[in-house]
Design goal:
By secondary structure, the protein is α+β, with helices and mostly antiparallel strands. It has twelve helices and 17 strands. The longest helix is centred in the middle third of the chain and has 14 residues. The structure holds adenosine-5'-diphosphate and magnesium ion (MG). Catalyzes the ATP-dependent conversion of 5-aminoimidazole ribonucleotide (AIR) and HCO(3)- to N5-carboxyaminoimidazole ribonucleotide (N5-CAIR).
Length: 371
């Protein structure tokens, strides 16, 4: 469908009503758009930030057509929607991001192939189609390596670290239940960074500052943004290479590993706003959700993003919220976001906290509270 710039008062349809959908909705509504959300959970966070709510599975074509009927543009908060469904929607409705990029990136194998052929440095990897591939993996990648399911993994789910030959039986079981998968060399990490960017329909592009990320149990724990990361320009160069191969519209994030020799590897790409970009709501002049909405609305992107202050963001998982919630009232400097999920579970992302006045030691105070 041909694209026109959305007028104020138009409706943006969002597939997925989690925290990302909710924060997109907040940005959209501030700019005068209405929001329609589709989600299988009728208590999802975005439900109460939306003008219209459609209670249906993500791949329910009838419900998606209903969403399309309500919407002047459709976007999504997560990348695991079926490519065929998104392709069918793109024919009838305005889906500015299209469907091809999602299809490439939702499969770790095609994702890595695309990154590699762009000339960017990807983590050494191999395709694993059956347990017999393991010999080749050991030979080429050595121990330790990490098996990752090609489809649908997140927050470390669908992954197995294989440290030595004794763990090969476990690896065989994993492969039997998870094919297709990829095997990746385990990088001895010095640190992890990510860079969030937004691409407009006209090809213009804007970058957020480099985000330094600390994971615990493969889930993002903390993001620090100083605006002065020494690998900022190398990371941007890598993203630009990837962008020649993969067509982006909207906000996306590239995750990188940095090894002990300060070498940068691309880990993965999320074609949507990302957890490590949440600090931008308070710390930057545009949030990653603002620029996402600007781009799907066909509006012009800002020339640059300004970081007002260095920032730290901590995720609040179920168990963290339990510890922290009774102390929020004492800390006006903690910008508290609680997503409003009904069910609180260990390791489920329930909210996050962003802290800006780092010079006042608020970071230390927060971490001591968490202990
Ligand atoms: P997810 O889709 O769950 O985010 P990732 O591939 O980003 O999956 O893995 C989650 C985390 O696990 C990474 O951020 C990193 O901390 C660790 N990890 C994953 N792959 C590797 C690797 N090849 N070498 C070292 N650490 C890794
Ligand atoms: Mg990741």
């Amino acid at each position: 469908m041909s694209f026109t710039k959305l007028k104020v008062g138009s409706t943006i349809g969002i597939i997925g009503g989690g925290q990302l959908g909710k924060m997109m909705a907040h940005s959209a509504q501030r700019m005068g758009f209405k929001v329609a959300v589709l989600d299988p959970d009728d208590t999802c966070p975005a439900r109460f930030s939306a003008h219209h709510f459609i209670h249906a599975p993500y791949n329910d074509m009838e419900a998606l057509i209903q969403l399309g009927g309500l919407s002047d543009a459709i976007t999504y908060e997560f990348e695991n929607i079926s490519g065929d469904t998104l392709a069918a929607l793109s024919e009838k409705f305005n889906v500015p991001q299209g469907f091809r990029t999602v299809v490439t990136l939702q499969n770790r194998l095609t994702e890595k192939n695309a990154i590699e052929s762009s000339g960017a440095q990807v983590v050494p990897y191999m395709h694993v189609s059956n347990p017999d591939s393991l010999n080749r993996v050991v030979e080429h990648l050595g121990y330790p390596f990490i098996l990752k399911t090609a489809f649908g993994g997140y927050d470390g789910k669908g992954q197995l670290v294989v440290n030595n030959a004794e763990q090969l039986t476990e690896a065989v079981d994993f492969i039997k239940s998870e094919v297709p998968c990829v095997a990746e060399q385990m990088i001895m990490l010095a640190s992890e960074i990510s860079i969030t960017a937004t691409a407009a329909l006209d090809g213009s592009l804007v970058f957020f500052p480099v985000q330094e990320n600390i994971h615990r149990h493969q889930i993002l724990y903390k993001t620090t943004v100083t605006g002065t990361h020494q690998l900022q320009s190398s990371a941007i160069e890598e993203v630009k290479k990837i962008m020649k191969n993969i067509h982006f519209v909207g906000t996306f994030t590239v995750e990188f590993f940095i090894d002990q020799n300060n070498k940068l590897y691309v880990n993965e790409i999320a074609p949507r706003p990302h957890n490590s970009g949440h600090y931008s709501i308070e710390a930057c002049d545009y949030s990653q959700f603002d620029t996402h909405i600007l781009s799907v609305a066909g509006w012009t992107l800002p020339e640059r993003i300004t970081l007002h202050q260095p920032a730290v963001m901590y995720n609040l998982l179920g168990q963290d919220l339990e510890i922290m919630e009774d102390t929020f009232h004492e800390h006006p400097d903690w910008h508290v976001h609680v997503y409003g999920k009904e069910i609180r579970k260990n390791d489920r992302k329930m909210g996050h906290v962003t802290i800006l006045n780092l010079f006042n030691d608020y970071e230390t105070i927060y971490e001591e509270r968490m202990r």
